[in-house]
Write a structure and sequence with these properties.
Elements: H1 2-33, H2 45-67, H3 81-108, E1 112-114, H4 121-124, H5 126-156, H6 158-174, H7 190-193, H8 205-229, H9 233-252, E2 253-255, H10 267-301
Antiparallel strand pairs: 1-2
Helix pairs in contact: 1-2, 1-5, 3-9, 3-10, 5-6, 5-8, 5-9, 6-8, 8-10, 9-10
């Protein structure tokens, strides 16, 4: 199954790169022809290619699992029945609470301040944001923890599988094309030509190193949670709860003037790149202690 995941990710990048110029051209033409879509006239090609790659990977996930012989939900960590849904709810609450506490700490420390204009629109976005967060979290947990980690674990062991899975998880999340020269008219191979720029860290190490570390530790913690609970339901909840709050925070908070945060390091960006590193480290340690206690209890009872 791990080979199938690698094939899916590789195919997604190549197919998405080939598809992106056609999608970009169609969207720009639609923006020119329809006044209601005028904002699409200046649509950046870099935004389109990342969405196309994601769409190809999402559409290819179910066929990939079928070709890998997966016929039951339990094979990708979706077993558990009623306890699974309870894990989903408790994980979601923990993820949302963790980000809220980190954000509140940043507010008290003067890193954030209330946004200049806060309307009730943030409330109307809570439910759609929750649906989006659940969809993203479910897809990523099935792909990375259920398929990749679950496939590697019997072959190379749980620890090595968690490291490999978490490294891939982190790298995929920072793979954003940042070309040295913007692409105004995308030709058929423009998406493939962007591949060397996928990991060009334009924000510098001050942003990327803590962000990559946070993502890696988050991946390790989610792998440990899968082993601990026997399913990915709690991991989906934790992942979704954090994404939900990351979508909501920028609507009510902004970087404080004295914080000196540059572009790309708004409230959600700062939380994800710096504070979550400590949060995930604490979570990984807590899960390791729980697993150790569980093993110790079993040995004593034996």
């Amino acid at each position: 199954m791990a080979c199938a995941v690698a094939w899916l990710l590789t195919t997604g990048v190549v197919a998405g790169g080939l598809l992106a110029p056609w999608v970009h051209g169609a969207l720009v033409r639609a923006g020119r022809q329809f006044p209601g879509l005028a904002e699409l006239r200046d649509l950046e090609f870099e935004r389109v290619i990342s969405r196309c790659v994601l769409a190809v990977v999402v559409l290819g996930l179910i066929p990939m699992l079928r070709m890998s012989g997966v016929r039951r939900r339990e094979a990708v960590g979706l077993g558990g029945g009623g306890s699974g849904y309870r894990d989903l709810a408790s994980g979601g609450g923990a993820g949302a609470l963790a980000v809220l506490l980190l954000t509140a700490t940043g507010w008290l420390a003067g890193v954030y301040e209330p946004a200049e204009s806060i309307s009730l629109s943030w409330a109307s976005s809570l439910l759609p944001g929750l649906v989006a967060a659940l969809a993203i979290a479910t897809f990523e947990e099935v792909l990375f923890r259920g398929a990749l980690f679950g496939g590697l674990r019997p072959v190379i062991g749980g620890g090595a599988a968690a490291v490999v899975c978490s490294a891939v998880f982190a790298l995929v999340h920072i793979a954003t094309p940042e070309p040295t020269v913007g692409i105004a008219h995308a030709h058929w191979s423009a998406g493939l030509e962007l591949l060397p720029d996928m990991f060009r860290m334009v924000h510098g190490g001050a942003f990327y190193l803590p962000y990559v570390g946070s993502l890696f530790l988050m991946g390790v913690a989610l792998c440990a949670m899968y082993v601990w609970r026997g399913s990915i339901w709690m991991g989906i909840g934790l992942h979704a709860g954090m994404i939900w709050m990351w979508l909501w925070v920028p609507r009510v908070l902004a970087p404080a003037q004295q914080s000196g945060l540059g572009d790309g390091s708004g409230p959600s960006g700062l939380v994800k790149s710096h504070s979550v590193f400590l949060c995930m480290l604490g979570l990984a340690v807590a899960l390791a202690l729980l697993a150790a206690n569980q093993r110790g209890g079993k040995s004593c009872s034996a």
